[in-house]
Amino acid sequence: MVPFRLLVYPGFLFLFFCAMLFSWLDRRIIARVQGRVGPPWYQPLADFIKLLTKEDVLTTGAHALASSVLPMVSLVSVLTAALYVPVAGVSADSFDGDLIVVLFLLSMPALTYFLAGWVSVGVYSIIGGHRSLLQYFSYEVPFLIALAGPAVLSGSWRIADIIAYQGHTIWGALTQPLGFLLAVVGLIGKLKRDPLDIPKAKSEVVGGPLTEFSGRKLALWHLALDMQTVVGIFLLVNLFLGGSRFLTGLPAFPVFALKALGVLLMLSLASALYARLRIDQLATLGSRWLAPLALLQVAVVLWMRG
Amino acid sequence: MELVKDVTEMRARVLATFAEAFPGQDFETREIPTDDVVITLPAGNVVAAVGALSEKLGMTHLTTITGDDMGDEIRLLYHMWHGCGLTLEVKLPLTDPRIATLTEQIPGATMYEREISDMFGVVFDGHPDLSRLLLPDSWDGPPPMLKSSDGAKEDQV
Amino acid sequence: MTKTTVPIGPQHPLLKEPMSFQLGLEGERVAESAMRIGYVHRGIERLCQERSYVQNIYLLERVCGICSHVHATTYSRAVEALMGVEVPPRGVYLRALMCEFERIHSHLLWLGVIARNIGFDTIFNYAWRDREIVLDIMEDLSGGRVSHAANTLGGSRFDLTDEHRDKILEQLQIMDAQIQLLLGAVEHERTLRERTRGIGKLTLEQIHRYCVVGPVARASGLDIDLRRDRHEAPYDRLEFAVPVHTDGDVWARTLVRVQEAVESVSLCRQILNSLPEGPVTTRVPRRVPAGEAISRSEAPRGEVIYYVRSDGSDKPARVKVRTPTLTALVTLSEQLADVQMADVSVVLSGVDLCIACADR
Description:
The complex is a heterotrimer.
Chain A: H1 2-7, H2 12-33, H3 43-53, H4 64-83, H5 98-119, H6 123-154, H7 159-168, H8 172-175, H9 177-191, H10 202-205, H11 215-240, H12 252-273, H13 279-305
Helix pairs in contact in A: 2-11, 2-12, 3-11, 4-5, 4-11, 5-6, 6-7, 6-9, 6-13, 9-11, 11-12
Chain B: H1 7-21, E1 29-32, E2 36-41, H2 46-57, E3 62-69, E4 73-81, E5 85-93, E6 98-100, H3 110-120, E7 123-125
Parallel strand pairs in B: 2-5, 6-7
Antiparallel strand pairs in B: 1-2, 3-4, 4-5
Helix pairs in contact in B: 1-2
Chain C: E1 3-8, E2 20-26, E3 29-36, H1 44-48, H2 53-60, H3 68-83, H4 89-117, H5 121-142, E4 151-152, E5 155-156, H6 162-188, H7 190-196, H8 204-209, H9 214-219, H10 226-229, H11 250-273, E6 291-299, E7 302-310, E8 316-322, H12 325-336, H13 341-350, H14 355-359
Antiparallel strand pairs in C: 1-2, 2-3, 4-5, 6-7, 7-8
Helix pairs in contact in C: 2-3, 3-4, 4-5, 4-11, 4-13, 5-6, 6-11
């Protein structure tokens, strides 16, 4: 069973499928909001395959080894994190404290992203890299605190336990609405999506840290980011929306899928409805509002636990 | 901002200002369509004239400067607008055309003067930066808007 | 702190215009900037001296890819003044109609560009979708979406039937609703305001100093609009407001431009509803008598001036064009001083640069 769980469901193949699907849905939803049609369903896959076949160009002065290893590290840490995030209650592995490991692994891409800018030697890459670090400190703190809420409430740092706890009480999003919203905002920052796509804002720093990447490496970067989206959404569904549980008797998988799509819809709408913030505006927002509010939420949770 | 009503009033007010600023001098004027007065000045008087206009009449809007190679001289036309048009005309010799810069009175003249320096080779004394504006840095021919220039060669296009 | 030099342009996703900037950055702050234009200098002024008066109309349309009609109109007016020809009222109205459509087109295009640059793709898509309505109307009228070739010496080259007019009025109805929607979005959307407010500030004093014209000047409190201030036909018989704001930042420029587009829709309606009967062109003499003429109009980006000198031959002796972008370019180094790297795109797009205009 373990190889199947690692490679097929809920492992690599399933995640790959979800990454393509979510990426397509995201583009489609945004297009609809903007009065466009949007791409056909196979577009993300076609983009991926096309990038794989493209020439791999390395800029002069760039570190060859580092620039090939970094996208892989990014992808691998996302995939490893995915092992502990249950999909409809099924996960490849689970142990006490796996939430902390997942959070750590999900921060890895941010680091590799910064390093990617650093090793590829280009002004836009380096500025983008700096920005990604600054952004990291703005969203990561509130994100971590917000995710600590459900764990503290259920008294366990094991994702499966948190789901179970919500099963016999109510959804985390209902007990901690603020924490849920902050987690969504943090996730947007983590995924560098509009309106927090500051490190890779096209009209400011071209492609950010990934400006000088091409071919297979770029494809891996994109895949890692798309998979991170999927894992992040699944994590929020598990921690805040009660995983696959919704009224007893309903089948687990469709319920889980619907909730995940709901979170995706939130992300897409946020992309479509807001202008990009500036890095200093995000830093102010993070330190003045997001982090204190997250702390407030945890305080409320502690009070609720009595 | 009080605008001048028509060309007649413009001519009268500008000439009155100039009579005060340059006593004893006569200025040749003409009206051209659609609503402009052209006043011809000696090349040395432009800076003082613009200064007097902005001080007395509040005219600070320099629309542009036109350079024109008349064949025997270069004409510079300083187009201003203040309800109706006023154009100050200056004639410069073809060889070594020089004139004082307007950029101190009107910083907005920077681009116009650079363009004329590109296209007609007029030197604006005192201009902070007369580098190329429109022509490529590698341009080594004569100023292309002069009648004596035969334009760009094949390899310069 | 070490300085990084960031090249922007002549090809760069930030700036869809062929100009180049060298920005000296300290961290994210712009410490110095150097600008270079001239990449699309086509020598149009010199070319004008080698073509006939009529050919020049269509050459001068190519000065700008957005406000092509206003260039042709202004030039034609100068030549007509030299010839002493009066354009029949219907021709004047039709020219103005096209100019107003062009203004809507230009401002919506600009709104899309700035929205795109601050990462607001929804407004970008909406603005550019609605722009299509105007482009369609212009194509219907003249056969061209961007270069209309709608002018000739002595009048307009297109005419309207009544059915045609009713159809355009219908399209304008849709346009009106869409623009109001955009105006509402621009006025009330918070992130858009946050990104544009206080950016690229120009005081009224700076506007005077640099002789800036058009929406940029009006956003800084300079109440100037040649359509109104020159009392020229047909604007002296139409009712329109000139939006003026005093903040002087990109936010104010956004408001000025979108409100101007609203006014232009109303102007188009008024023109269509009060279109005089009669011919659209008049006969013009074969020769242009020697002389000179200056003609000015209010293009979407501000004052355009044409100086035309004729020596009596069949080609003009000198045609001088000054486009509004050239005035805004001078202010850029001041606007860019001390802004964040992220705001460079907002500043640059905020003044609505048209480098093809500036280069000629």
